[in-house]
What we know:
The complex is a heterodimer. Chain A is mainly α. Chain A has a domain of 56 residues. Chain A starts with 6 loop residues before the first helix and ends in a 15-residue tail after the last helix. By secondary structure, chain B is mainly alpha-helical. In chain B, strand 1 and strand 2 form a beta hairpin. In chain B, helix 5 packs across helix 6 and helix 5 packs parallel to helix 8. The N terminus of chain B is likely disordered. The chains are: A mainly alpha, B mainly alpha. The interface between A and B is medium-sized, with 34 and 36 residues.
Amino acid sequence: MSGNxxxxxxxxxxxxxxxxxxxxxxxxxxxxxxxxxxxxxxYGAIGWGIGKAIHAEWPFPxxxxxxxxxxxxxxxYRYGRMGALEQGRDGRGRVKGMTDDR
Amino acid sequence: xxxxxxxxxxxxxxxHLFSGCGFPAPGxxxxxxxxxxxxxxxxxxxxxxxxxxxxxIVIAFFWAAFRKPKLVPRGIQNLGELGILAVRDQILxxxxxxxxxxxxxxxxxxFFYIFLMNLMELIPVxxxxxxxRIGFVVPLAIMVYGLYLYLGFKNQGAWGYxxxxxxxxxxxxxxIILIPVELLRFFIIQPFTLGIRLFANMFAGHLxxxxxxxxxxxxxxxTIGLLFAVGSAAMVLFVFVLELLxxxxxxxxxxxxxxxxxxxxxxxxx
Lengths: 102, 270
């Protein structure tokens, strides 16, 4: 009995256990790491291309910094503001991609 | 005096402190092996032997464990069930739930294969983690990522999968800024980091073990170096135990990330 009087659907909602939290944390951690590297490399490459086109060296480091800034900003927006754990949950509070039939 | 020390060091054999030959620093040469045999331009090396042996051991172990399964498990079946249940409860179910049980054979094979390949660095005679050669890691990462993409396209459809790839709830101008980042992350960086972490950990771990082992041998002489040799030998033991943990941990992380990738590819179904 859940004790909160919200019926059968609510009883199916449960907190993730330790192993689920670990899997979610691992996945989130590596996604964040991938975003950091991707921003740096993607905008670094764009900056390098622009630098080649205009025969200047400055667009490459500027692109890398810009990419890193975009990645950090997006990671803060996605995982910081909403919370890393909440990001992995669906509308009913369950861990995303997980069903109650385990 | 120094001359006397040199005589003693030379008598101990090999390259030692004050013997004048310098520290034989380990490096990339410790990861390259002479071929065991060659067939034309194909050279069969020690890492290949380890990879073949690990495959055979994993297959033979599970075949022996479940060849004639009993309702009440005994002997090797006990051990096999223990391994399978560990992967199921600690790796598969937390990410995929009961519906993911169909992927259990794949994840069990992957986990034990990687674990055994890593563990080979601590087993005498072999003493080399095959996963410290990137040629063994890249095909595994490509296989896992290929499965991830295949399942995603199969279960969510091409458009559904691509649209799910993008973060939701983001203003449209931000989408334009994120396009290069997302494309690079999804198709290159994510599979790259999946493989490179396993490779780098095994490479660094093996190098660390070799450095302290060679240093112990190099410092072992009838000089003050003997004191440092004892310290270096203690580090060998410490790194050995640490590597045992890392071997297990890296197999666990690779398999867990594989399970979470499969889960996200199947997500639309849940």
